[in-house]
Design a protein that fits this description.
Layout (H helix, E strand, L loop, with lengths): L6 H11 L24 H8 L14 H4 L4 H17 L1 H11 L27
Length: 127
């Protein structure tokens, strides 16, 4: 929502998480600029403690942090992506994920969890 300046989605996320839309400014899990509710994320803390870029490097995956992940869509994405990321490596994983989140109708970039393209309004289900 922050990256794409999607204020409508930011407002919906804020309502879901019980915070203000401006509290959702985020530049990624391993950055120093994270949304309010992500500042206490156990997954992030675990990765930093083990000096990992992410769960794909951890031999203990999946662990209780993932099993108990509070956002169902996030957990589904994690469970789909980590095995593939391990198999193909970071460079190819990122390339494939960028290709995955493109609207098949108009070519606009989508975000994970999108149910409809912001540009053409076509329904999508990529997760």
């Amino acid at each position: 929502a922050h990256r794409d300046k999607n204020e409508k989605f930011r407002a919906r996320l804020a309502a879901f998480y019980g915070c203000r839309p401006e509290d959702l400014h985020c530049e990624g899990c391993l950055s120093d600029v994270r949304a309010e509710f992500c500042r206490t994320c156990g997954v992030r803390a675990c990765a930093l403690e083990k000096n990992y870029e992410g769960c794909h490097q951890c031999p203990d995956w999946p662990c209780s942090y993932i099993e108990d992940f509070p956002v169902p869509l996030g957990k589904r994405v994690i469970m789909r992506t980590i095995p593939y990321w391990r198999e193909v490596g970071t460079e190819r994983f990122v390339e494939e994920e960028e290709k995955r989140y493109i609207c098949p109708n108009c070519g606009s970039m989508l975000f994970r969890g999108a149910k409809r393209c912001r540009e053409c309004q076509e329904k999508v289900d990529l997760d």
